[in-house]
Write a structure and sequence with these properties.
Radius of gyration: 24 Å
Largest sheet: 5 strands, mixed, barrel
Structural class: alpha+beta
Number of strands: 7
Oligomer: single chain
Strand order of the largest sheet: 1-2-3-5-4
Length: 480
């Protein structure tokens, strides 16, 4: 046990590596892990540590195998591809998008089990908890050149889609007070911002403030992707830390004692995560944020790197598939890891003359995060943005004010809608300025170009990245 906590980061990394290798290589991952860790143990002569890491690697593969086997047992929708079916189902999620309604339907029939994704018209619409008799054609999800839809659905434990959906509502599931409150809050947010601003600006506010980018049209998505700003459309560590800091400052203003501040922070953070449907990137950030806040209250030292691997290990233990299929989690984890590993080093390389207005800080954070996430972005989206660094340095401080204004207008709209309407005009002008600024940056020659990275190239780059912490550690050791 002492050895585990002493090498906590390495141990969790071995567990995560076992999950990734299993999903990428299958059962042969056991052989690969045994060879790699065995050779490392022989050459380093750290046999006990190598044995522990090998055990955790096997634990990761076995946990993945158990999760995959359970999923295969409970989901047989692939056997119905190309067939028309009629079944009773329950609506698990219901979301309005630019192209209509997006549903996730859980089958309640014994002959077809699993979760299916579908789309439908905005009116009439279904709501979460509705019981329906569905008629559709079960098909495999089709990915496009700019969006891997099949992988996105696998991250949500969905293998099949329900095309040409027609339905008849036959009942509704009784939901608890919390579920009803969360669902009502989501509907209120959508309805309120669609009244305050017209699309696509209402959808843009929901994406920037609440991480809900499903209502954005393809033109807006492409605009942010080409500028290297797609990460601001999802809730990240920055959003969670900003939210926690806002709650802590508010608690201090109203005089909440220090030991009791954790209670309202946890309660509001839980409600915020429920609004976000527990997005993996937001959940990871929330776990790290709570650990940091708890350490500050108890007077303990907070280790960001251990907190990052603890949150990743805890989430992968509950659902191993997020490590391999959930793009949001992968980008969030790698961006945070890049900042923790490289931010201080990069800050030392930037001349002190750029310290004005926190330019140096924003630049070092952006470069560190981009180095670790850019290969994955090239693999998934195939767009390289040389202008991304400049865009992030210029836009991120501006986005912070938009997020704060969006939260403030949301709260005011609940109390005095007329005042919120007037204030939303200022927010609308800020969103137009943001959009025009990005468009202006993209007019720079070679601001972006298409370049897709293959699987072998992606693996090679991240293997090289694995040497960066070792090199920096040896360099710091020599200085000491």
């Amino acid at each position: 046990m002492f050895l585990f906590f002493r090498h906590f980061t390495r141990c969790v990394f071995s567990f995560l590596l076992g999950i990734v290798c299993f999903y990428a290589l299958g059962e042969s991952a056991l052989v690969a892990g045994f060879l790699c860790l065995g050779v490392w143990g022989v050459f380093s002569r750290r046999y006990l540590l190598a044995g522990l890491l090998l055990l955790l690697f096997f634990g990761g593969t076995l946990r993945s195998y158990a999760d995959l086997s359970l999923w295969e047992y409970h989901d047989n929708t692939r056997g119905f591809w190309g067939q028309s079916v009629v079944f009773r189902g329950k609506v698990a999620t219901s979301k309005e998008t630019q192209s209509g309604m997006s549903y996730e339907i859980v089958s309640l029939e014994p002959f077809i089990s699993g979760r299916l994704a579908s789309r439908g018209d905005i009116y009439p619409r279904l709501f979460r908890g509705d019981i329906i008799e569905a008629r559709c054609r079960v098909e495999a999800p089709v990915s496009s050149s700019d969006f891997d839809y099949a992988r996105y659905l696998l991250g949500r434990k969905i293998k099949s889609i329900c095309q040409n959906l027609s339905w008849e509502k036959i009942g509704s599931e009784d939901q608890g007070m919390i579920a009803l409150g969360v669902e009502a809050s989501k509907k209120w947010l959508d309805r309120t911002w669609n009244r305050l601003l017209s699309p696509p600006y209402s959808s843009l506010v929901l994406a920037l403030v609440f991480g809900d980018a499903r209502g954005l049209d393809s033109a807006s998505r492409d605009l942010f992707a080409k500028a290297g700003l797609s990460h601001i459309l999802v809730v990240s560590g920055w959003h969670i830390s900003f939210f926690i800091d806002l709650l802590v400052r508010g608690g201090t203003r109203v005089g909440i004692p220090k030991p009791w501040k954790l209670v309202p922070v946890l309660a509001m953070l839980l409600f915020y995560l429920l609004i976000l449907d527990f997005q993996s990137a937001a959940l990871r950030s929330a776990i790290m944020g709570v650990l940091a806040f708890g350490a500050a209250l108890s007077g303990r030292v907070y280790d960001s790197r251990r907190a990052l691997f603890f949150s990743a290990g805890l989430m992968s233990l509950a659902s191993p598939s997020i490590i391999f299929y959930d793009i949001g989690f992968q980008l969030s984890f790698l961006a945070t890891l890049g900042i923790l590993v490289l931010e201080k080093t990069i800050t030392g390389w930037i001349p002190a003359i750029f310290s004005w207005g926190k330019i140096r800080e924003h630049a070092s954070l952006t470069i560190a995060a981009s180095i670790f996430t850019q290969p994955l972005l090239l693999y998934y989206f195939g767009v390289f943005s040389p202008v991304a660094l400049l865009a992030n340095v210029l836009v991120l401080p501006f986005v912070a004010s938009i997020v704060l204004s969006g939260l403030a207008v949301t709260v005011i709209a609940a109390v005095w809608f007329t005042l919120a309407q007037y204030l939303s005009i200022l927010l609308w002008l800020a969103l137009i300025l943001l959009e025009n600024s990005i468009q202006l940056l993209l007019r720079i020659p070679y601001a972006y170009f298409d370049f897709r990275l293959g699987g072998v190239g992606l693996l090679s780059i991240y293997l090289c990245f694995g040497l960066i912490p070792i090199v920096l550690y040896q360099k710091n050791k020599k200085r000491v």
